[in-house]
Write a structure and sequence with these properties.
The chain is of the alpha/beta class and 354 residues long. The protein is built from eleven helices and 15 strands. Strand 1 (3-11) and strand 2 (14-21) form a beta hairpin. It is globular, with a radius of gyration of 20 Å. Bound molecules: nicotinamide-adenine-dinucleotide (NAD) and zinc ion (2 copies).
Length: 354
């Protein structure tokens, strides 16, 4: 039995890099040698015990690598291909996938909420030397030779998610857009709003460094929620309310501020992961008859999504490298979690090299 190094979740605040069994490709699967990965805010929720996964699971869900082994039936790729795999790995064949809702993949049946999120959730993940990719034919996206691992690693999750916040809102050319929170997801929401043709983009956060990066990613104006009444200022800047508000934090406060920043018939596009109760005050919502739209989105995955996102980078429409601020070896991942979790030293995303 061959071994590999991997970051294993053992329980709350207990992750360890240790030797585990190296995966083998079964029918329809592939094994890739991971060349670069990263840590997601969702991994922090897992390590802090706020999102349950089974002890013994290898965590992480953002793999870039080289195909090491192809299982029976995988004819679309060759061993040695460099590939990007989305954080969400839909089966491509169930009712949800074939209806265009692949992130809610039903595992061969109807729909299952978050069912497309498998890596580091229901199966072993990417913070490892090797990772087994399910439904390989639907999920391995070949990386163009011109692109480096660093240019594509953030497309797997945060860029796909952030951009989808703008896409789900159906931003139109000339729209005004406010993005609540400029963490990695919100910054990609800002970049997504720009890609979609927004005219005025307002980035909201309370961290000076992140507000500066917000401008770099496309914000025209930034607001510090610590010192500004954000909804009032957004209504002033937009002449009555933004066309679109993207929520990228997942708190009742930002959800409500997003709603209060909208014009009637505006769209609230929510990306945050919430816990507890979310209340909607009637007056922020025109008593329910203001023609508002509220949409939510889980990160889109699958090889076609990854191909499109890599094209966006290849043709110079967006550069995510400024978000990759630190680099660690897999052996040092506990240190990386600490830095990332404490948001120290201007960290946005950390590159992890197995
Ligand atoms: N929808 C999806 O598929 C998906 C995917 C990944 C992550 N997420 C979720 O997206 C959210 C954001 O993730 P992240 O990694 O960017 O988070 P993060 O924790 O790195 O960043 C959050 C940011 O919010 C700012 N902030 C705090 N309070 C604020 C306030 N009142 N107003 C404005 N900004 C405020 C902080 O300064 C920080 O910069 C999380 O809820 C995460 O779980 C969703
Ligand atoms: Zn994630
Ligand atoms: Zn499916």
């Amino acid at each position: 039995m061959e071994k590999m190094k991997a970051n294993v979740f053992h329980g709350k605040d207990d992750i360890r890099v240790e030797e585990v069994e190296k995966p083998r490709a079964r029918v329809g699967e592939a094994v890739i040698r991971v060349t670069l990965t990263t840590i997601c805010g969702t991994d922090l929720h897992i390590v802090r015990g706020e999102y349950p996964v089974a002890p013994g699971l290898v965590i992480g869900h953002e793999p870039v690598g080289v195909i090491e082994e192809l299982g029976e039936g995988v004819t679309s790729h060759r061993i040695g291909d460099r590939v990007l795999v989305g954080a969400i790995t839909p089966c491509g064949q169930c009712r949800a996938c074939l209806s265009g809702h692949a992130s809610q993949c039903g595992h061969g049946e109807g729909y299952e909420a978050l069912g497309g999120w498998r890596f580091g959730n229901t199966i072993n993940g990417a913070q490892a030397e090797y990772v087994r990719v399910p439904y390989a034919q639907a999920n391995l996206a070949k990386i163009p030779d011109e692109l480096t691992d660093e240019q594509v690693v953030l497309l797997s999750d945060i860029a796909s998610t952030g951009f989808s916040g703008a896409e789900s809102a159906r931003i139109k050319i000339g729209d005004s857009v406010v993005v609540f929170a400029q963490g990695p997801i919100g910054l990609c929401g800002t970049a997504g709003a720009k890609l979609m043709g927004a005219s005025l983009i307002i980035g909201v956060d309370g961290d000076d460094h992140r507000l500066a990066v917000s401008k770099q990613m496309g914000a025209d104006v930034t607001l510090d929620y610590r010192s500004v009444d954000v909804p009032a200022e957004v209504r002033r800047l937009t002449g009555g309310g933004a066309d679109v508000a993207i929520e990228a934090l997942g708190t009742p406060q930002t959800f409500e501020s997003a709603l209060r920043s909208l014009r009637p018939a505006g769209t609230l596009s929510s990306l945050g992961v919430y816990s507890g109760k979310l209340e909607i005050p009637y007056e922020a919502f025109a008593a329910g008859i203001g023609d508002h739209r509220i949409v939510t989105t889980l990160c889109p995955g699958g090889k076609e999504r990854m191909r499109r996102l890599m094209d966006v980078v290849l043709h110079g429409r967006v550069d995510l490298r400024p978000l990759l601020t630190h680099r660690f070896k897999l052996e040092e991942i506990t240190e990386a979690y600490q830095l990332f979790g404490e948001r120290k030293d201007g960290v946005l995303k950390v590159a992890i090299e197995p």
